[in-house]
Specification:
The complex is a heterodimer. Chain A is mainly β. Chain A is globular, with a radius of gyration of 16 Å. Chain A has one domain. Chain A has a 6-stranded mixed sheet. A 4-stranded antiparallel sheet of chain A has the order 4-3-7-10. By secondary structure, chain B is of the alpha+beta class. In chain B, helix 13 crosses helix 14. Classes of the chains: A mainly beta, B alpha+beta. At the A-B interface, strand 1, strand 2, strand 5 and strand 9 of A face helix 7, helix 9, helix 12 and helix 20 of B.
Chain lengths: ~170, ~775
């Protein structure tokens, strides 16, 4: 995760790369299909400050994401952003992602998203463009777990969509 | 003691018998077996570690022939605030203390990473987006790139031109005569470069522009041609600078004169030589007051004075003169916007000045916590390592970066425009200050090679930072408010789990060059810091760890250590064999996963069991003639309900008779009388062996912790069985109940198995409530 090293930002880039190559801009998404509940359960972790920046810049919002003093139409904007940037297809059909809510974990934001009433599948297409509109070098790690098998993707700008097959 | 052996006899037999049976089977099935080399996880790291020699000993200390070269600098620097340009002149003296003749010298030109034709970007894949905003398109494909590389105006030796060649960020000086051991070489260099905007470039050095008042705040580093390190390990460390792998620098003495607009306020590496020329009388008076203020910072340049200065732009200049001995680098920060505060700090009996430099945009947060965080860090780190040897430590406010130099560092943490700030901003700022001030110890003084090993300074420093943060929280409870402890982001084992259990494709061992890892933050900071915390708390214990860690810091203070020097010292000073630990945590991407595979309840009886008879017969013993007790598994056919709830002596009168024949009444009173016997099979799907921490819960609700040493895994890396005799019934067994080992899968840690609620389900349930 980016600044996974906030504290550690001593590694911040020296150079003026217009799209630097350092690994600080990262999100992690875990997607798990729960057979019993017939639901796709998604947890996405992003850095709070990045996420606040992207919502404010993109929607001209004046949000403040903070555990103790949240301001603005936070839920609406997060929901809108996720709809645009995190997309899943099963059997060629776009799934309706339902943003449930979030938690703060130090400098990270944990987002909970669900797709209910989804029958089991073995092919899924994942598009994750979260924060790639703000940072050229944003990387998004996605772990997909179906039938106890986990497969991982590293998605980024120009490579934001991948298909996975589970045997 | 040995009288008790009888009671464990049966269990020992059982354990041995298990192994024998397996071996016999294996032989029958595989008549031909392949041999192998020693692939035991406890094998010593002779092949991996560099061979000890006269420069670096097997104990991890500098050897009798240890040497390091030195570079002294005398510099005149002029900062042109209007044109954001820096001009410099330097006299560099390089001392060859090595036993080798040097035909050439390597000088680092880090700013060249920002030359417009630098290959920095070319090494990364790139593609064309199907759609782009006009601004982005112009930016990427049409605009002339910023040219921020060094422009070398002159390079001479005693006034004569020197032959040199530049390869990207490295400049080779070709000497007419080789530089002999014990000799020095002087050269002069003149250069200039365009200073970049470190906010838009996300750089370590540069300026931030404040459009509201039109001023810049500069944090300047890597601004001069810096000598590379020549040593016994690398020869010249001239690996190119690409951006992630930081710096390798020799120690030296610096005299630096820096000329800036007369209305600027500056801080820099080194002792200010002409304070009364550059400070106003009022500032001098406040500075003297600060020298005696140990509890609260004294404002030396006020916000009102800074705001007044912001309104104009002086065309006059002032020269600030600094001297620094035994530093490996030099950085400075200057602006007319700066507020300055200072507080004296007693660091183990020595007065050190804690200093903060920030524009009004940092307030009210900075005046409140920056200098206190600096002071607290110096004390904590000195306790862990050695007394802080410099006379001051400065924390400079930079909008969004943290970066360290000797005696000075840049730190983020900016309140909102109305002056309010969240806890996240506050703790982020205090943490980054503790981290960057801590870098004075690693790598500014314990001077490791950052270009090659990012973790050596970042990992050690992030570990020490965790301890320093916790101490800060104890010292300033008002800073952490209602929290129980300071909210450290790294160091706690459970926090590294998501990384350690992630896809192996995107994980690299800690011992990997910073340019080649996928997740630098986890690789160089989080994982090594957590590994060291686990080493201290769970493997070595605090006392042994702290002594060895301090020994390493003392041995390599003002020297250049390698990873092996650290690994060896930690072992050498503690008598704890750690090769398995370094291998697992530092040289591989394995993770920790230990759990409980099976628990069997056992009973002891005199009645010969089928398994027992087979066992004896295999060794030609006649069960009839041997006085033996037998172990019965609860699920075996020999099991009889009547065995339940009785003591060993009741179920196996043979033992009772033996005890009466061989023990006095008093001795008998001291014998244990275990009623419950278990055979617990622990599994280890994870590749890293770790001490096994087990919590037993008994029927009466009491609990007991048992620690099995890591050597438990030395002969079987997957699974190990332990016999447990107790006089209370066990109702629950949990492996690593306090999450101290970074176990990546705790679903197998509990017996009887518990249904664990997933993070997702737990959140959803909470929502419902």
């Amino acid at each position: 995760m980016r600044k996974i090293s906030l504290i550690l930002a001593s590694f911040f880039l020296l150079s003026g790369f217009k799209s630097g190559a350092h690994e600080f801009y990262l999100s992690v998404t875990e997607i798990e299909y729960n057979n019993e509940k017939q639901s796709l359960q998604i947890i996405t972790r992003v850095f709070v400050d990045d996420f606040q920046d992207v919502l404010n810049e993109r929607y001209d919002a004046n949000l403040q994401l903070s555990e103790e003093a949240e301001e603005g139409a936070v839920t609406e904007n997060i929901s809108k952003y996720l709809k645009q940037k995190l997309r899943l297809q099963v059997n060629g059909e776009e799934l309706q992602l339902n943003y449930l809510g979030k938690e703060y974990d130090a400098d990270q934001l944990v987002l909970y998203i669900e797709v209910e009433n989804l029958s089991s599948f073995n092919k899924i297409q994942v598009t994750n463009e979260i924060l790639t509109d703000l940072f050229d070098d944003q990387k998004n790690v996605v772990h997909v777990k179906v039938n106890d098998k986990t497969k991982s993707l590293l998605l980024m700008r120009n490579q934001e969509t991948e298909k996975l097959t589970f045997p | 003691m040995n009288k008790l052996r009888l009671l464990s006899f049966a269990l020992v037999m059982l354990f041995v018998s298990g192994i024998q049976a397996q071996e016999v089977e294996a032989e029958e099935e595989k008549p031909k077996q392949e041999g192998h080399e020693n692939n035991n996880k406890f094998k010593q790291l002779y092949k991996t570690f560099a061979t000890p020699n006269q420069y670096r000993t097997g104990a991890g200390a500098p050897g009798e022939a240890y040497y390091q070269n030195q570079a002294d600098y005398k510099m005149d620097i002029v900062l042109d605030d209007k044109n954001t340009r820096l001009d410099g002149e330097a006299e560099v003296t390089y001392y060859n203390n090595s036993p080798d003749e040097l035909e050439y010298l390597w000088v680092q030109l880090d700013q060249n990473v920002r030359k417009k034709d630098a290959p920095t970007e070319d090494r990364n894949p790139s593609g064309m987006r199907p759609v782009a905003t006009p601004q982005r398109f112009v930016d990427e494909h049409m605009e002339e790139p910023f040219d921020g590389g060094f422009n070398i105006v002159g390079l001479t030796h005693n006034g004569d031109k020197i032959d040199y060649i530049i390869n990207q960020t490295m400049l080779r000086i070709d000497l007419e005569e080789p530089l002999e051991p014990g000799e020095s070489f002087e050269f002069e260099m003149k250069w200039w470069y365009n200073i970049n905007n470190h906010i838009t470039d996300r750089a370590r050095s540069g300026y931030e522009h404040f459009p509201k008042d039109g001023n810049n705040a500069y944090v300047i580093a890597q601004f001069f041609p810096r000598m590379a390190v020549y040593n016994d390990v690398e020869g010249w460390q001239n690996m190119q600078f690409w951006g992630s792998g930081e710096f390798a620098l020799p120690f030296g003495n610096y005299e630096v004169d820096i000329t800036v607009p007369a209305d600027h306020i500056m801080e820099a590496t080194g002792e200010l030589q002409n304070r009364d020329e550059v400070y106003t009388k009022e500032m001098m008076r406040r500075y003297k007051k600060a020298k005696n203020s140990y509890d609260e910072p004294v404002i030396v340049r006020t916000q009102a004075e800074a705001e007044e200065a912001e309104k104009s732009f002086s065309n006059e200049t002032k020269t600030w003169k600094y001297k620094a001995d035994m530093v490996r680098d030099f950085g400075f920060s200057t602006s007319r916007k700066f507020i300055l505060d200072m507080m004296a700090t007693d660091v183990m009996g020595k007065d050190v000045m804690a200093v903060s430099l920030y524009p009004k945009e940092g307030n009210p947060l900075w005046e409140k916590w920056s200098t206190k965080a600096v002071a607290s860090t110096l004390k904590s780190y000195s306790k862990q390592t050695f007394q802080y040897p410099y006379h001051k430590s400065v924390s400079v406010h930079a909008r969004n970066q943290g970066m360290e130099y000797p005696m000075i560092c840049w730190n983020y943490g900016r309140p909102n425009e109305d002056g309010t700030y969240s806890d996240r901003t506050k703790f982020g700022m205090i943490s980054v200050i503790i981290h960057e001030v801590g870098h004075n110890f690693f790598p500014m003084i314990v001077n490791s090679d950052e270009r090659q090993w990012g973790w050596m300074d970042e990992g050690l420093n992030t570990f020490s930072q965790y301890l320093a943060e916790q101490e800060f929280g104890e010292k300033y409870p008002e800073a952490i408010g209602s929290l129980e402890q300071y909210p450290s982001r790294r160091g706690i084992p459970s926090k590294i789990v998501p990384y350690m259990r992630g896809n192996q494709k995107y994980i690299a061992p800690i011992m990997t060059n910073p340019e080649n890892v996928y997740q630098l933050g986890n690789n160089a900071y989080g994982k090594p810091a957590t590994a060291l915390n686990i080493l201290r708390e769970t493997v070595m214990g605090r006392e042994l760890f702290d002594y060895a860690y301090k020994t390493f810091a003392h041995r390599w203070m003002f020297k250049h250590p390698t990873p092996e020097d650290f690994f060896r010292t930690m072992e050498d000073a503690s008598a704890v064999d750690l090769d398995w630990f370094w291998r697992g945590w530092f040289y591989t991407t394995h993770n920790v996963d230990m759990g409980i595979k099976e628990v069997q309840k056992l009973y002891i009886t005199d009645n010969a069991t089928k398994e027992g008879i087979e066992f004896l017969e295999r060794y030609g013993a006649d069960p009839e003639e041997i006085d033996a007790v037998y172990v019965v598994k609860e699920d075996s056919e020999d099991f009889d309900e009547s065995l339940k709830g009785k003591s060993v002596l009741e179920n196996a009168p043979t033992i009772k008779e033996y005890v009466m024949d061989n023990f006095s009444e008093e001795e008998r009173a001291n014998l244990k009388d275990p009623k419950y016997f278990y055979q617990v099979t622990f599994e280890k799907p994870g590749g890293i062996p770790m001490p096994l921490l087990v919590e037993f819960t008994y029927a009466d609700g009491s609990t007991e912790m048992k620690r099995y040493p890591v050597q438990l895994w030395r002969k079987n890396d997957d699974m190990v069985t332990k016999a447990i005799a107790t006089n209370k019934e066990i109702t629950k067994i949990v492996v690593d109940p306090n999450l101290k080992t970074a176990d990546v899968d705790i679903s197998n840690n509990t017996w009887p198995k518990e249904e664990t609620t997933s993070e997702f389900e737990a959140f959803k349930e909470n929502l419902g409530n």
